[in-house]
Amino acid sequence: MRIDADRLWRRLHDLAAFTEPDQPWTRRAFSVSFQQGRDWLRQQFEAAGLQTRMDSAGNLIGRLEGSVPGLPPLATGSHSDTVPHGGRFDGVLGVLAGLEAVQSIRESGLRLRHPLEVIDFLGEEPSDHGVSCIGSRACAGHLDAGMLALRDGAGESLAAAMARIGARPGELGPALRPPGSLAAFVELHIEQGPVLEARQLPIGVVTNIVGIRRYTVTVAGRADHAGTTPMHLRQDALVGAAEVIAQAQRLAASHGDGPPYVVATVGRLALTPNAANSVPGHVSMTLEVRSDAPAVLDGFVHAVMAASADALNRLRVTADVALLTRTEPVACDPRVMAAIEAAAARLQLGSMRLPSGAGHDAMHLAEAGPVGMVFVPCRDGRSHCPEEWIEPDQAAAGTAVLAQALVALDGA
């Protein structure tokens, strides 16, 4: 079995070309460039000999049948959407490496017992509706009616956006991938951190994926004229929001390097009136906390708001918190981890075990069957930025390990 490294590298750049012209590399879920990329992906799946379909959650799936009828599939894949001004490899590498691995297995003449599936999950990055992992969340039955009703800045609901690209959100409810429906799921991804590069190792074997809580925090004050309202009479919602942000940073930083692993971010704010000469009267922001400790995840926002209470009272503003999304920490399956390590050793590639501080579609597939992840280094550990980069040989090495691991899991 031979990986076609040139074909993989060419496809990576072909898919990256579907981007907003003035915002490389941007391919937001539900956008025109996203749909164009999806159309191209479908053509590539079919050219590789895979049967394609879109499930009711909008996941694009390519399938190669196995030799034993009725066995659950071995699956791989990731996502093709990006954050604004993101990179060319986050998510995309996992989809196209999965395609290359399955195509290489097919071209070698090897027919596995299990079916092989390559999945491009819908909307892994936080969408403009505030929900991440849309397609994989639905696989676990965790995309609920409240999430489907959320609206983006243009007023379109998530359900309407999904229907627009060919999904069937009205059919969603129970898990699309119930327990036992996958033989295994293996996702290849760039590390999005500096560890592998610093240790000069080509392969990472992921041990666990952090859990994530996202909250909408709404701070309400009073809008006033910025020139005529004395400072002591203001009810500045943005100053109140700044207090909450500072407390979130302090609390997360207090955990140091762990254990447990804890990071917190406020990465999105909307304020009104949002004018240079007006005191902000209302702020809505998204607070995210990530940790491998469920107790920290559940208690973090309450601790932040308690620490902010006195300052908010002095400012005479109020704050409300609403849970947006909830994702639990996930441990990778020991059998899948062992298959990845054995594949790396067979290919004479050094590896190490490490956790993932980023969320991935694999988290939501863990209820359907055993999951694991392969990491490859990225330059300076950077991701979610235009400078995100890997070398062709790094992409090929990770893909070769992925293919070997799938073959090994087929016989396990």
TrEMBL record:
Domain Peptidase M20 dimerisation: 211-309
Domain of life of the organism encoding this protein: Bacteria
UniProt remark on cofactor binding: Binds 2 Zn(2+) ions per subunit.
Cofactor: Mn(2+); Zn(2+)
Keywords: Hydrolase, Manganese, Metal-binding, Zinc
Binding site for Zn(2+) 2: 90, 125, 384
DNA repair recorded as keyword: no
Residues engaged in binding Zn(2+) 1: 79, 90, 189
UniProt cross-references to CDD domains, sorted A to Z: M20_bAS
Keyword Transport: no
Molecular function GO labels: hydrolase activity, acting on carbon-nitrogen (but not peptide) bonds, in linear amidines; metal ion binding
Name by which UniProt lists this protein: Allantoate amidohydrolase
Organism: Pseudacidovorax intermedius
